[in-house]
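Possible regression after last week's pipeline update?

I re-ran a chain I had predicted before the update to compare outputs. Posting the input and the new output here so someone can diff against the archived version. Not blocking, just want to make sure nothing changed silently.
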Amino acid sequence: DYGFGYTKKMWSRNSDELEVTADLNFRGMTVTKNYIVLSERNFRSRLYSKEDGSYVGNVAMPEETGQQCMYANKDAEGNLVIVTASVWTGGELRVFYWPDGETKTPVKLGVFAGAGDAARKFNVVGSLKSGLAYIYIPRAKSTTCYRMKFVDGVYQETEVLSFPVAEGKTASTYMPAVTPLDGTADSDFIIVDQESFEGEAAGYVTLVDKNGNAKLSMADGVRAGNGGISADGKCFTFNGAKYFMWNVMFGNVNGHLRIADVTDPGKFNTPATSEDIDSFLVFQSESVTSSSNGNGTGACDYDIAEDGSVCDVYIWLTSGDLLKTRLTKISL
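New output (post-update):
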């Protein structure tokens, strides 16, 4: 008994059904223990039912102004975390946390001066309520990532980690994502960056050690097929297997979700032509589309049942579709 077997599409919702249009500038998606959350650039966030994708209300937001972008994720307990920043102007980065649910007043975990150059993605490992946790926030158009350490929800320190960029390039795009393989201080991590439509950066997905040294890069045919990639990626463990999920974009309005088995990180560069490819690249969702998505962006997330029986995976495109697929332990 290992990993997932049978998969099933649960539902999909388009931008009209979600009431998400290009002018509202939605920037992030996450799936907490309670809801699906879409975060908007103008300091608002919406809540949707995990059962059917219907709109159910709004996140209780703090009284804050002056922040252009909001990015959403969750901690290990499934509680909502939102980072606000102004990627174009620098300035402050603020971290908010909803330990008592999305409709309750959040806790401000910190205001970090000079860190407002954060990219549009971040990842959390550990619980921000108790114990050790890290927030990984890559910087836009750079080669570095902030790693903020928290103990029992109290900020401790920020380290700056380095990551490589594609050959011939000097920096990432505005939207790299960094996802650690585990929650330890020595964890390897995966850097995901999309291909820039201005030709400034080539797409890549690379396994990196804690010192910023590239270990293995995902093969082109596995990473993206014939398209670029959307800058999002997450690692999760289900039924004894460790997985890495990421979005694949074709042009800037169509995409799908892929999942690789990274239980053995040594297989990270498995070629698309390898006879072992089916044991590494283990899932590809149906396609989703967006009505308006000039930057070719989106998000992905996972939601494991409390009893560990199933794992639901989601892909969302900016100003576009939201798709939910269920991974089960049922053998094929």
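Follow-up from reviewer: compared with the archived run. Helices lie at 15-18, 220-223, 277-280. Marking as no regression found.
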